[in-house]
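As noted in the main text, all predictions were made from sequence alone. Below is one such record, for Molybdopterin synthase catalytic subunit.
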Amino acid sequence: MATESSPAVPSKQPSSQTSSILDPSNFPQTLSSETIYISLVYDPLDVPAYLRFTRSPKAGANVLFLGTTRDNFDSRPVSRLSYSAYPSLALKSLYAIAEDVQKKHGLEKVVIVHRLGEVKVEEESIAVSVSSGHRASGWTGAEEILERVKARAEIWKREWFADTGEVQEGVWRANKETDAQGNSIQSK
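Prediction:
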């Protein structure tokens, strides 16, 4: 059963006021168990804490993926990204993804942490860390988690370009606009 806290990173309870649902002072927000840690944060990601959580004496492989803001998209200069979420649903979706992929690939432990708010170029917006008995299940499981998060989690990305007036408003991006290799996916 998931709980609202974790020994790896302290959590705060979300405010009941709708206007403060994304107030950074109400974060981090987490769901966790002995083998799964899910969190939404506004602060820079604490990668060493996530690796400590996934470390296990049963694991011969520890896989870490960090999604980082790059300085371009589709040949346009990107100045930053910002992320928004529906926290209570996003946490439940991330936990369900972690639980399902953990069972499917026999993963020992799973961490999914997504950053909200502004994420500058070269900063990380998502961390997926898994441990497994062998590397093949760790690689496959971590990639499947990332693809499912992009397809399902109630987290939205806004891209800010440095070459147009869109710097003031940004452009909302669907996470599914590119495949795992970065190739554009055409809408039908």
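The two ends are 40 Å apart (CA to CA). The beta strands are 29-32, 36-41, 61-68, 72-73, 76-85, 107-115, 117-120, 124-132, 155-161, 171-173. These features were considered when defining construct boundaries for the mutagenesis experiments described in Section 2.9.
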